[in-house]
Each structure stands twice: as structure tokens, then as C-alpha cells.
Amino acid sequence: MNTLLRAAIVGTGAIAHAHAEAIRALGSRVELVAVVDLDSERARAFAERFGAGAVHADLDALLREERLDLVHICTPPQTHVPLAVRALRAGTPALIEKPTALSLAEMDELVAVSHETGVPALTVFQHRFGAPAQRLMAMLDEGVLGRPLVAACETLWHRTPDYFDLPWRGRWDVEGGGPTMGHGIHQFDLLLAVLGPWRRLTAFAARQALPTDTEDVSLAVVEFANGALANVTNSIVSPREVSRLRFDFEYATVEVEHLYGYTEADWTFTAAPGHEALADRWDAASAAAPADERSSHTSQLAAVLDALAEGRTPGVAAEEARRTLEFAAATYASAFRGAPVLAGEIAPDDPFYRAMDGGAVPWPALKEATA
How sure is the predictor about 166, in pLDDT bands with cuts at 50, 70 and 90? Predict the structure, then answer.
């Protein structure tokens, strides 16, 4: 009989519920044994709701008192790397909510500790793990779609001013950025997973309407190493909300339009003339897949458990997640400097390596920074 893997959740706010639901959905493979939160009353209520056997006051107590196979980091972004590092040094793999880190400097610290300890540091980028996205990447690797030519990536969401009433929202020092870091990052991570390394980008960012220190809109035009061109839009001022990706290959166009998670029905495959067999292949695979299965924390956690059971490094490991974070940093650097940015250009002596705002935000701050 297979032994249940033992997981814990650190931070029991809103996003932690998605993690707990994923663990519950995979209950034959993993169990939630403990939770941690500074708010003990909230932690106890969360533990009771999701069947966790223990509540701990802090991460150190959790790591000292529990035998764990995986710890889910669901705290505010500025705590992600410090908590993950402690878990790795205790020998426990960490699954970290996005954004993994607030800067490339922090990200490189996490990568270094993961290498030093041999313990995986993983980022939640669940849209990579839905069946249609996996199928797309497999077909691209197989070469049947031809060269990638053009792509569009749009996260057009809407947030009202009261969304920023929470003191930690909309601050560079706590969240690392606006929709580029906290909203659109899921969509452009999938873009990068499909198209591979990017070469250079030119970007714009603005605070158009919302009471936030960060941007509420950013746009980037990107050239990839394989020659593909793409545009990336991240917005939280768009009343008709949609998350959309379109890939134009030599022999097919593949599109997905959803909001916070896609199913098979959200994807469209259009073959180029003479390549209709590709559409037949896609449609047959889509019809055989579960129709209501959504890209979610559950799909990524299942892939993580598979990898751990097989002795492989699960996705999305810190080295690969760094490429997505570098894309966000380059978006800000290009927007605030008014110049293109090359992949790898943001070096340790660059202000945008240490902070996503690079000390160059062109509008006045509205919120008081933490000490």
C-alpha cells in the first residue's frame, strides 16, 4: 500500500484554501498534517475545516515537531523566500505561491540554497499543468506545429479601489509589483513555458486609475530566442475580465480564453490549410480528456506528487521560475527606463536586480512603506 505523503500549509489566508482543496482532492496520496499562522484563531478554524491534525505558531516549530514531505508557503510575498529557505535547510521541499520572490536577488538566493541542500524549491504556476497546455507543449516539442511565429498574452482583470484597503496590497516592498507580478504572471509564465527563452523586450507601465503605489497596467512586446514575437498585457482596470493566450505556429493557431482557470472547452485549435489532420488529432485527445478538469493547484500538486514518488525534481523548480521573474523585472526596467532590455542584462549591480521598482517609479507613492 502506498504511504501518504505528509504536507503542511504555512499561512491560512485566501490562497491557502486552494492549496488545502488540492490536498483534499488528492487525499489518497497526500494528507494535510499541520498548519501555521500568526493568527491562531484563524489557523485553528482552517485546520478544523480541512482536517489538519496540528496547529503550530511558527515555521520553526512546525519543522521541529513534524515529519514532512512538502510544505506549502501561502504567506504574503515578502516572506516567501525567508520561509522557503528555512524549509529547504530542514530538508523539506517547498511549494511557494507566486510571486516566488520580490527580486532577482532573492530568487538567486533561493536557487543557491536549493542547489546547496539538494532540496526542491517550487513555484505555483498551475496553468502549465492542465491537460491542453501539456498537449500543446508535447506537440510543439514533436515539431508537428512548425515554428512559433506570433503570440498574444492578455490578463485583463478588474479590481476596485477598495481592493487596496488592505495595507499590504499595492506596495512594492510587500507585493513586489502590481498586475505584472501578482495577476498576469500566471499567463505569461505559460507563454514562456510554451515559447521558451525570451531574447529582448520593450515595455510600458502606468498607474491609470487605482490607489496603488504599483502599476495597474503594463504592456510588453517581446522577441523570443526562436524568433517568435509576442505582446503581453497585464491589467487590473478592465471591466470585462478575461485571460487569453493565442499562439500562431506555421501549421496551426492554438488559443485559450478563460478567467481564473481553463478547461478543455476553453481551448480552440485551428489548423492551417493542408494540416487538418492536426485539428483531428487535437479534437480526439480533447474529447478523451475529462471535460470539467480545470487548470488548478490540484493539477500541479498531482504532478509534484508524481515527481516526488519517481525521484524526479518536480516543476516548476526555482531555476525555471527565475526566468518568469526575470521577465517581470525586465518589464519594469524597460518601462521605467524607456529602453529595451535583453535577457540576462539585469545583473547584480543593477537596481532592478535588488527591487522590481528599481528606485525609478515615475509617479509619487501613495502608501507608507514598511520599516
Answer: confident
Strands 94-96 and 70-73: parallel
pTM of the model: 0.95
Tell me the H-state helices in the chain.
14-25, 40-50, 59-65, 80-89, 104-117, 131-142, 172-175, 179-182, 185-195, 276-288, 297-310, 318-337, 351-354
Q: Is the peptide bond before 148 cis (omega within 30 degrees of 0)?
A: no
Longest Cα separation, the chain:
62
| Residue 237: other Cβ atoms inside 10 A | 16
In degrees and rounded to multiples of 5, residue 287 shows phi and psi of -65, -30
Cα 341 from Cα 155, distance rounded (Å): 22
The answer to the question of residue 369 being in a domain is no
Domain span at 261: 127-295+322-354
Contacts of 274 (CB under 8 A, 6+ apart): none
Cis peptide bond N-terminal to 232, omega within 30: no
What single letter denotes the amino acid at residue 253? T
Q: Which of residues 116 and 167 earns the better pLDDT score?
A: 116
Q: What are phi and psi of 129, to 5 degrees?
A: -105, 0
Q: Do residue 224 and residue 350 come from a single domain? A: yes
Closest CA to 99 of 35, 177, 157: 177
pLDDT tens digit string along 218-263?
999 999 999 999 999 999 999 999 999 999 999 999 999 999 999 9
Same domain? For 238 and 349 the reply is yes
